[in-house]
TrEMBL record:
Gene: trmB
Function summary: Catalyzes the formation of N(7)-methylguanine at position 46 (m7G46) in tRNA.
PROSITE patterns tied to this protein: SAM_MT_TRMB
Protein name: tRNA (guanine-N(7)-)-methyltransferase
Catalysed conversion reaction: guanosine(46) in tRNA + S-adenosyl-L-methionine = N(7)-methylguanosine(46) in tRNA + S-adenosyl-L-homocysteine
Pathway assignment: tRNA modification; N(7)-methylguanine-tRNA biosynthesis
UniProt binding sites for substrate: 143, 175, 210-213
UniProt cross-references to CDD domains, sorted A to Z: AdoMet_MTases
Family named by the database record: Belongs to the class I-like SAM-binding methyltransferase superfamily. TrmB family.
Domain of life: Bacteria
Length: 235
């Protein structure tokens, strides 16, 4: 006698972010979620994204995971309209704020995901297709028992390396020094990446100060930028 197969469920992955309550949003932001999200969104689906179709042209594309309220994302996009930006965040007010900013500035090089950027990277981005990945000021999860929730670990860096085109960059920034050391270690240990300068960089001029960063600086925190470049296997 055969037995029915036992149903198994995949364990829920550890989140690298805290889900915050959306809070109240004014009419402009509510309207952005209702009227602009479809216009600028990453389309739903399970297949690999066609980035040329998504942006309407062939351009280098960077993925930004966690953009807060979108102020620095918007500033970088305005300064570099020739680069497409896939901007992902789970926080609804921040998504709405970025949508409003993109619409008001008439920017056509930004596409917004209201969701988990790591999931997007893992399941919908083709290997070797990104010009860059930006992770600015992710949750540091400072307590030792929570370190396993940090976004930038060896598995994440390996995933990024696979999705970057040769010469593409992973750029991380944090104001939490123990996390900066962990970032540097896992980036240096990934054989497909070359850590530029063998360690921390001063903030590049093209990366604007973020509101979160300003708060950290006001508290005396040291900000660390780390950049690693995808090694060209044919070189």
């Amino acid at each position: 006698m055969t037995q029915d197969p036992v149903e198994t469920t995949r364990p829920e992955p550890l989140r690298s972010y805290k889900l915050r309550t959306a809070g109240r949003m004014g009419p402009a932001r509510r309207g952005a979620m209702e009227n602009l999200l479809d216009r600028f969104t990453v389309p739903d689906g399970e297949g690999v994204l066609d980035l040329r179709t998504l942006f309407g042209r062939t351009i280098p594309v960077v993925l930004e995971i966690g953009f807060g309220m979108g102020t620095s994302t918007l500033e970088m996009a305005e300064a570099d309209p020739a680069t497409g930006v896939l901007a992902a965040d789970v926080h609804t007010p921040g998504v709405a704020a970025l949508l409003l900013g993109v619409d008001r500035a008439g920017i056509d090089s930004v596409r917004v995901l209201h969701g988990d950027g790591r999931e997007l990277l893992q399941h919908r981005i083709a290997p070797g297709s990104l010009a860059g990945v930006r992770v600015f000021f992710p949750d540091p999860w400072p307590k030792p028992r929570h370190h396993k929730r940090r976004l930038v670990d060896a598995a994440f860096v390996g995933l990024v390396a696979d999705r970057l085109a040769p010469g593409g960059t992973l750029h991380c920034a944090t104001d939490w020094e123990p996390y900066a050391r962990q970032m540097a270690e896992v980036m240096a240990a990934e054989p497909r990446l070359a850590l530029e300068g063998d360690g921390p960089h001063p903030r590049p001029d093209w990366r604007p100060l973020t509101p979160y960063e300003n708060r950290g600086l006001a508290r005396g925190h040291v900000v660390t930028d780390l950049l690693a470049r995808r090694v060209d296997p044919s070189a």
